[in-house]
C-alpha cells in the first residue's frame, strides 16, 4: 500500500485527448497518496521534481502510482531544470518496503494511515496552492476556487480587472 509516489491528476474535460472525461483526484484520495494537479505544461514539468522530492521526504517508495497530465497540455516549450544526481537504490536495505506480502502490506497500510495528517500539513503549505487577487481595499462578496485546466479558463476571464480573488488548488489532500 505504501508503494505510491505522488499522482499528477490526469483530467481531460470535454475529452480533448482521451476517450473519456475523468477526475483522477479520486484515485489519489482512495490510495491515500498526495496528488498534484498542474495548470500548465511548465507546472507539470516542475511538479515532477517536486513530486520526487516530496516522495523522498515522506518516504513514499517507487513511482508505480505516478500518473501524468492529460494531452490537454502540449508538453512542449518547458524550461528544463538542471538534472539532479541519481539517488542510489538499495532494495536490500528494507526488504519489507519492496515485497508486499500480506504481513508487510498490513504494516505498510498502517504507516500510510499515520502519514495522512502530515500529508494534509504539507499540502496546506504547498507552493502550488495559493490565493491571488486579494486587495484589502475591496469588500469581496465571492471568489473563485479553481484547479487544473479550469484555472487557466478562470484567468482568461480576467478576474484581476473584475477584482475577484482566485484560490488556486493544485496539491491534495486538502484539510
Report on this model:
- The structure is a single chain.
- The protein is α/β, with parallel strands linked by helices.
- The chain is 34% helix and 9% strand.
- The protein has a three-stranded mixed sheet. Strands 3-5-4 form a three-stranded mixed sheet.
- The longest helix has 18 residues.
- The N terminus is likely disordered.
Quick rundown:
The chain has helices spanning 25-31, 41-58, 95-98, 102-114, 116-124, 148-156, and strands spanning 7-8, 35-36, 130-132, 144-146, 166-168, 171-172.
Set out the fold topology:
Blueprint: E1 7-8, H1 25-31, E2 35-36, H2 41-58, H3 95-98, H4 102-114, H5 116-124, E3 130-132, E4 144-146, H6 148-156, E5 166-168, E6 171-172
Parallel strand pairs: 1-2, 4-5
Antiparallel strand pairs: 2-6, 3-5
Distance between the termini: 22 Å
Number of helices: 6
Helix-strand topology string: EHEHHHHEEHEE
Mean pLDDT over all positions: 77
Largest sheet descriptor:
3 strands, mixed
**What's the total count of β strands?**
6
Please state how the strands of the largest beta sheet are arranged side by side.
Answer: 1-2-6
Spatial shape: elongated
Residues in helices, as a percent range: 25-40%
Question: How large is the share of residues in beta strands?
Answer: 5-15%
Which stretches of 5+ consecutive residues score pLDDT under 50?
1-7, 62-72
Q: Could you say which structural class the secondary elements and strand pairing correspond to?
A: alpha/beta
Regarding quaternary structure, what we see is single chain
What value does the Rg take, in angstroms?
18 Å
